[in-house]
Amino acid sequence: MQNAFIAQTTLILLLLQQMCVYLVIAYLLSKTPLFIPLMQVTIRLPHKLACYLIFSIFCVLGTYFGLHVDGSIANTRAIGAVLGGLLGGPSVGLAVGLTGGLHRFSLGGPTAVACMISTVVEGLLGGLTHRYLIQRGRVDVLFRPAVAGGVALVAEIMQMLIILAVARPFAMALQLVEHIALPMMITNSVGSAMFIRILLDRRAMLEKYSTAFSSQALKIAARAEGALRDGFNQANSTKVARILYEETGVGAVAITDCDKLLAFIGTGDDHHLPGTPITSSYTFEAIACNEVIFADGNAVPYSCSIHSHCPLGSTLVIPLRGEDNQVIGTIKLYEPKRKLFSRLNRTLGEGIAQLLSRQILAGRIDAQKQLLAQSEIKLLHAQVNPHFLFNVLNTLSAIIRRDPDHARQLVQYLSTFFRKNLKRPGDVVTLADELEHVDAYLQIEQARFADRLNVDIDLPEHFLSTQLPAFSLQPIVENAIKHGTSQILGPGRIHISAHNIDGDLALVVEDNAGLYEHSKPSNGGLGMSLVGRRITARYGAGYGLSVACEPEQATRVILRVPLASAENLETRH
Amino acid sequence: MIKILIVDDEPFARDEMSELLAGEPDLEVIGKAGNGIEAIAAINRLRPDVVFLDIQMPQISGLQLLKMLDPERMPYIVFVTAFDEFAVQAFEEHAFDYLLKPLEPSRLAKTLARLRRVRKPQSIEVLTDNAPLAQLPCYGHNRVYLLKTETIQFALSRISGIYLVDADGKEHFTELTLKTLEDKTQLLRCHRQYLVNPAQIAEIRFSNQGSVEIVCHGDRIVPVSRRFVRAVKDALAII
User: Fold this and answer.
1) CA-based diameter of chain A, in Å?
2) Of A387, A487, A489, the CB nearest to B144
3) Distance, in angstroms, between B103 CA and closest chain A CA?
4) Chains A, B: CB contacts under 8 A, how many?
5) How far is it, in rounded angstroms, from Cα B4 to Cα B158?
6) What residues of A are in contact with residue B35 (Cβ under 8 Å)?
7) Which residues of A touch B11 (CB under 8 A)?
8) What's the gap between Cα B207 and its chain centre?
9) ipTM for the complex?
10) Backbone angles phi, psi at A283, to 5 degrees
11) How many Å apart are CA B87 and CA B93, to the nearest integer?
12) pLDDT digits (tens, 9 = 90+) for A9-56
């Protein structure tokens, strides 16, 4: 009795030892990508195949690591079969069971048949448990070590029963079962549970790693958003370098354009000075080849090109790319000599470089768009309506003959008009200024049309200091005459007024033609819409132009700009 | 004596032109008009030999005005324009006389010289499109206005002038001649003194005596003279 107990205990310990070797192999394999398909339940065929292969190997290994007892083998084969079924489903379980079972059968012995059958049954049991849990939607339960252990325990009990039922002579079978039942039940259950534990740990680590990576990447992306959009220059680069330095925790961060250092933050900033030319051969190489250069300080030597006592020991140089993938600069990450360059920072660095390249590119496109809008407005300025100009000159030539003084006055108005027209589009002027432009223009038009044009301006004094973009009101008035009053047979009337509407200045230009809908957008529309767009762009969506037209009666154009506090401006003068 | 009419919507432009013409002994400025509608009346009334015609004018441009003139009595037209790329090109290609503002006396002198040599009307077809006139200038008590052609039922000629009758039976006086209306609108000649708008015809009555009359909507009757019966039938596709 005592002997039997000792033998039993010895067998348990031996089998546990074997299981440990088995689990070490499992642990090592879990570090490889081979194990990734095992970490989640999938129905994809390649994953199922991987599942089958791996667990078949473990099944066969379990047999090999087994201990020969009474001509039979005490083993951990059940772990492979049960887990194969549990993680891969009934088909995988069955396949693994068959593979492991046939292998066991090929080794022979009195229990060969019984063991083969039981291995298949174990695989099926795991598979059925898998199907049951999946159908209940309890995927999480699948990955519980206790569940795997429990299933393995049941599987082992069934194996013992099968041996008793199938193996002959029965006396031998019974003796064998007495010997191996407890050790096999314990090791297989514990082994299965620990195998699952390894999988879980591996999965948790992967998730943690990628969470950390993505949260860091997202944080950098969020902080660096737009930083380089308004220009790839020293000030903006310094901001970005600081963000990268703080978020990645590397030794130092540098940003260069193609010839000089724009920013340097971190260790070594005493001799890596922004504004100095690039000296590092790696940077030149990265710019010339448009490639990421990595000098880890070991395989690829790195030493600071500026100072021999520089504590930096490794560097990663990533090119920044602009239009057509042309290199426009680099981002450099450094680690000091005592630290290793982590792969994480390397991947992150490349991602950030891409992000920043995009920003620079977007910024340049923005700048170009703005330039285009500016030149559009410039064009509008330069484009004095030739019809207006030549008619004025013709009028002037008539007036010179009859009334030289009036003609001289008109020349004055004309020069005021042209001078105001030369104002740069970006300028902000006061309403008084803008009104001078309008007035010069109207004086000329009134000379042309005489009693066919009546103008009536009603602008309260206190609005005159309000600021607005130059060249805002005049195009509207010009439009009201060109496409309005000059197109009707009767006398034309233009009324210009100003109102305080909810704290904004509303300038209203009204004509009595009511032809707005009929006027072609290609003529007046361009100038008007540019004026509106410019004001909306400057002050926001609530500001700009609105047009109301009663056909044949009146067209009313309302220009809305913020009403700067007139009192404040006046006290400043 | 060459009779001249000046048409421009700017008073100083009219003055400038007449000042420049004042020194010429064989020229007489017989009138000035400030828009296209006034111009038609003046041309029909004063029968000028030459019209100095501005192109950019309210409602009826100089080019549209040309279409409204009776081709039989077309004066010699000299366009005066400040800036009109299309028109200037057309003038240059077809040798119409045109002047650019501000007016240049030496250039004007050339035009006058040509006028004294040949004073025959030019073909205006190249300058105008073939689209019918969509609106017709009419004269009220103290105003001028434009009437949409499609609203007219018929046009008739009296001793006092040409009248357009609209769907409400209201009469509108116009300076356009029946000939112009016949040529430049969809109105159909049915009588020496009548044009009818085919779109407004309700009925055609044939009497036993062989006379024919058109009944427009609103029971207004338009006579059809014998010599135009054929033409009316053809136009209306009546066999």
Assistant:
1) 144
2) A489
3) 7
4) 68
5) 28
6) 489
7) 449-450
8) 36
9) 0.76
10) -65, -45
11) 10
12) 888 888 888 888 888 888 888 888 777 777 777 677 888 888 898 889
Q: What are the C-alpha distances in Å from A246 to residues A211, A223, A224, A534?
A: 18, 11, 12, 40
Residue A569 has pLDDT above 80, yes or no: no
Q: Which of residues 437-466 of A touch B (CB under 8 A)?
A: 447-450, 452
Closest B-chain CA to A488: B58
Of A391, A399, A486, the CB nearest to B82: A391
Nearest Cβ partner for A488 among B34, B58, B103: B58
pLDDT at A1 over 60: no
The token duo for A43 is: 């129905």
CB B30 within 8 Å of CB B48: yes
Instruction: Tell me the pLDDT of chain B (239 aa) as tens digits.
Output: 889 999 999 999 999 999 999 988 899 999 999 998 889 889 988 999 999 999 888 888 888 888 888 877 888 889 898 887 777 776 776 666 889 989 999 999 999 988 888 766 666 666 667 788 888 988 877 677 888 999 999 999 999 889 999 988 899 999 888 988 998 899 999 999 999 999 888 888 888 777 888 998 888 999 998 888 888 888 887 76
CB A148 within 8 A of CB A188: no
Residue B40, min C-alpha distance to chain A (Å) = 14
* Chain A residues touching B142 at Cβ < 8 A: none
- Cβ contacts (< 8 Å) between B56 and chain A: which residues? 387
* CA A149 to chain centroid: 44
**Is the pTM of the predicted complex or chain greater than 0.80?**
no
Burial of A284 (0-12, 13-18, 19+ CB in 10 A): middle
Return the structure tokens found at A168: 């002959």
Nearest to A489 among B10, B35, B100 (CB): B35
pLDDT of A256 strictly over 50: yes
Closest C-alpha among A312, A314, A311, A319 to residue A301: A314
Distance CA B45, CA B42 (A): 5
Is it the case that residue A567 has pLDDT exceeding 50?
no
Q: Give A450's contacts in chain B (Cβ within 8 Å).
A: 10-12
CB contact under 8 A, A489 and B15: no
Is residue A178 scored above 60 in pLDDT?
Answer: yes
Q: Tokens 């064989």 correspond to what residue?
A: B26
Return the structure tokens found at B100.
């650019």
Q: What's residue A338's pLDDT?
A: 80
Q: Which residues of chain A neighbour B34 with C-beta distances below 8 Å?
A: 452
A475 within 8 A of A507, measured Cβ to Cβ: no
For range A159-178, the mean pLDDT: 86
Nearest Cα residue in chain B from A399: B12
Q: Which of A394, A481, A482, A515 to mutate to test the interface with B (most CBs of B within 10 A)?
A: A394
Measured CA to CA, the distance from residue A184 to residue A180 in angstroms comes to: 6
Q: How far apart are the first and last CA of chain B?
A: 54
Please name the residues between 94 and 133 in chain A that touch chain B, using a CB distance below 8 Å: none
Name A310's bridge partners.
none
A395 touches B at CB < 8 Å: yes
What are A283-340's pLDDT values in tens digits? 888 888 888 888 877 777 788 888 888 888 888 898 888 777 888 889 888 888 887 7
Please name the residues between 42 and 101 in chain B that touch chain A, using a CB distance below 8 Å.
56, 58-59, 82-84, 100-101
Tokens of A267: 């260790």
**What would the mean pLDDT of A60-89 be, rounded to a whole number?**
84
Interface check B141 vs A, CB under 8 A: no
